[in-house]
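Explain this record to help learners:
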Amino acid sequence: MPRPLVICDCDEVLLHFAEPFRDYLGSVHDMELNFGSFSLAGSIRRRACGSGITQADVEPLLDGFFEDWIDRQFPATGAVEALAELSRGADIVILTNVKDMVRTRRGAELTRHGMPYEVMCNRGPKGPPVAALVAERQPSAAIFIDDLPPHHGSVATHAPDVHRLHMVADPELRALIPPAPDANTRIDDWASALPYIRGVLGLV
């Protein structure tokens, strides 16, 4: 009989991103990250002159972070324990928007932190890969967990039967990201989310 399926984002859901990325920008690029909005391009400035960066500058900075500083990321409180409990009765897939070249290192880092689950890399909206996963595995129930509202909209369009949980692990970012209108609910900590997820998946 098919098991339930948890499809979970990584950055700011399982692993913190903003804090180590801020350290990376300061140490390697002499830049500052101060969130005035959720836009990275609008929140990063060069220390030497105070100038901002463009959207085109963001991707190389992210590539450098994931290539050289991925081991500085650390788990969100309760994430390791929650996934360990869920894995007893459900399959877990970590669906992360990073380049394929990062997949092996991301998987190794998650395993090092106690989250040895399947990692799938994606680029762009997450609705299509979620729909493909559900079609392939035919789970008894499925839940999608992500910090970015547009991905919930994409999943609602392409896989509407998948339950959608909006979660933002970083306290600073929580205040900047309103509840995703296409999510079924918003819960920002794993201690509160775990019993909710168990209920959705029929693991009570």
Observations:
- The CA atoms of residues 36 and 54 lie 15 Å apart.
